[in-house]
User: Fold Peptide chain release factor 1 from Flavobacterium akiainvivens.
Amino acid sequence: MDTEKIISELQYKAVRSSGSGGQNVNKVSSKVVLSFSLPASGALTDEEKALVQTRLSSRLTESQTLVLQCDEDRSQFRNKHLVTQRFLQLIENALKVDKPRKATRIPKAVVKKRLDNKRRQGEIKQSRKKPNY
Assistant:
């Protein structure tokens, strides 16, 4: 994954933000909306695109575009930086290959201990019953 090439393919749009800022919020477009078109990307291989598409399917639009937004800060520059970092982390996690799970056996001592505890609990409950004459 070439981060510089991916960053060059991102589209940013500044929008009026809600939240803190007072009267400033009505004048300044500090919210940043990032969009990344997965099919049009030249930075990702076909295998990487397929992996991202399956892992981030719930976050993609119908046209396979990933849209992220940030309005945490009053500064447009800071919001742009934050949303770019969030995007790169998201793509990095989507491209991470999980290591295969190794099936392990339950040790005999653990099974024996569990069965002993079960038997002991059963004996305690049996001793609570009224005697049968």
The domain at 3-95 is CATH 3.30.160.20 (Double Stranded RNA Binding Domain). The mean pLDDT is 89. DSSP finds five helices and three strands in the chain. The radius of gyration is 28 Å.
